[in-house]
Amino acid sequence: MVSDRLNQFKDRGITEAKRFFWIFLYLWILLGLFALHKSIVLNEPHPFYHQGFAVINAFVLAKIMLIAEVFHVADNLKHKPLIYPIVYKSAVFSLILLSCHVLEETLSAAWHGQSVAEKIMDSGGGSLIGLVVSAVIMFVVLMPFFAFREMGRDIGNQKLFEQFFRQRRQYISLQS
User: Fold this and answer.
1) What is the pLDDT of residues 71-83, one digit of tens each?
2) Domain range holding 22?
3) Does residue 35 form part of some domain?
4) Does residue 61 sit within a domain?
5) Do 79 and 140 have their domain in common?
6) If you write DSSP's letter for every residue of 49-77 in order, what string do you get?
7) Residue 48 sits in the same domain as residue 10
8) Residues 160 and 142 sit within 8 Å (Cβ to Cβ)
9) Does 65 reside within a domain?
10) Mean pLDDT score of the chain, rounded to an integer?
11) For the segment 26-57, what is each residue's pLDDT rounded down to a tens digit?
């Protein structure tokens, strides 16, 4: 009885660790590319300097996304055609991630004794429109992530994984 509970706990932990890993990896790639792009645009001498921040942010944001999923944030359209939950979740989670980014910038500004408004605007390229564009970019890049998540929910995560990472069976048409 105790070993059954331990095995269930272990299996659930492994499943949650896998979910966390894929969310983290996706966000790390996304945030790492944003940081690299910003370094190149600003012509910084060390373009990979901010990659550590991208890893930390991806870790924190992945945990926030997992917590939001536990509370079923944006799950109310899961029985609609796929496009609805994908777009809705992308919008909601991009707002959540943008809010976390604004909170991070606020705390960073307070820590360094800078103006909060100035620090937040710097993250959007110096203007409100830059911040809005960042939110739109986040929305668009989250769409494939949620598309795969929703398809995995429909056909099963194992089947989705096999479709992408295992050799597919070749079907021969008998109507040739």
Assistant:
1) 988 888 888 999 9
2) 1-55
3) yes
4) no
5) yes
6) TTHHHHHHHHHHHHHHHHHHHHTTTT-TT
7) yes
8) no
9) no
10) 83
11) 999 988 888 888 788 778 787 777 788 889 88
pLDDT band, very low/low/confident/very high, at 176 (cuts 50, 70, 90)? very low
Looking at residue 92, its amino acid is V
Note every long-range contact of 81-90, with CB atoms under 8 Å and residues 24 or more positions apart, other chains counting: 82/147, 82/150, 82/151, 82/154, 85/146, 85/150, 86/143, 86/146, 86/147, 86/150, 87/143, 89/142, 89/146, 89/149, 89/150, 90/139, 90/140, 90/142, 90/143, 90/145, 90/146
- Shared domain check, 23 and 50: yes
pTM: 0.76
Clarify whether residues 50 and 80 are in a common domain.
no
Q: Please indicate, yes or no, whether residues 51 and 98 belong to a single structural domain of this protein.
A: no
What is the spatial distance between Cα 1 and Cα 18, in angstroms, rounded to a whole number?
26
The answer on 89 and 38 residing in a single domain is no
- Total count of domains within the chain: 2
- The closest alpha carbon to 98, from 66, 64, 52, 131, belongs to 131
Cβ contacts of residue 20 below 8 Å, gap of 6+?
Answer: 62, 63, 66
Question: What is d(CA 106, CA 115) in angstroms, rounded to the nearest whole number?
Answer: 9
